[in-house]
Design brief:
By secondary structure, the chain is of the alpha/beta class. The protein is 40% helix and 13% strand.
Amino acid sequence: MIPLVDLQAAHVEVAEEIELGFKRILANTAFIGGDEVAAFEREFAAFSGVAHCVGVANGTDALELALRAAGVRAGDEVILPANTFIATAEAVARVGARVVLVDMDPATYLIDVDAALAAVTPATRAVVPVHLYGQLAPVERLTEALAGTPVTVVEDAAQCQGATRHGRGAGSWGIAATSFYPGKNLGAYGDAGAVLSTDPEVATTVRMLANHGGLAKYEHQVIGCNSRLDGLQAVVLRAKLARLAAGNAARRAATARYDALLGSLDVVRPAVLPGNEPVWHLYVIQVPARRDEVLATLNRAGIGAGIHYPVPVHLTPAFAGLGYRPGDFPHAEAAAQRILSLPLFPQIRAEQQERVVEVLARGIA
């Protein structure tokens, strides 16, 4: 069996450190917030090259809170790519804003910046570029074009912990939301997320909103919610953060190995946007035809391949009310029929990748 993501192998590397950390939490009973959470926030902010990190309960909450802190309100429009996990759109809908979708760049799967800028209207309050599969969208093009307007760029950074664009990480342009879902490059042992920002006011607003609308107990300045990072998850994240750079380097090496192994096959390998240093959260190829049959062949052989994502947002029943139709976003729709995620994790061995490619070649043939 070759899993899509090997969480057990990841745990072995940090098991002893986490056990000791859990004992600390149980001894001091700092289950919500506390020193471990504060330490992780400082360490992840420093790792990300931003001034502020606010830990929250999960990545969807992180994006919703980031949007609220950016001033998005009910009735506003928020632009995002059609080829994203549904949580991106859910966060917008939970704010009460209107989801406005645009197509993707067919080479990189990242947001089509020209389409996003063309979709801006007087009602637009935010654009959400999604840093898909481990590389950053061209955020600088959006921030430069939207400078001086009421439109804020809020990055969906759920898949790019450690990735850079022109030497800058997610959040360094202003505000980003990330997820520490267990399968992420930096994954918790349950749900967790964070908001990253260069702006202290944004960070304070997020912290207030996530803590029932206040910074101190029984002081509620605004209507907020309950979305706080717990101490046990902070222990896990601190242990894994110390190894994240090495893990990302291992992902890059594995990606290069896949690139070489796939050279003779009729597949489209991942493309890197110039200026990017990806961290390869996922290794996504396109097969020419019969994708579902190829996937089934891999799965029958014990290979945990997957699809990220099989249905663009506008074609899900949940967002049918937006009024989009099949054909509105042809690049996203075409990719959804052909993309295939191959197993990728820092501990993957060369012989495992060779086996994946061997079965893939048989499935394509």
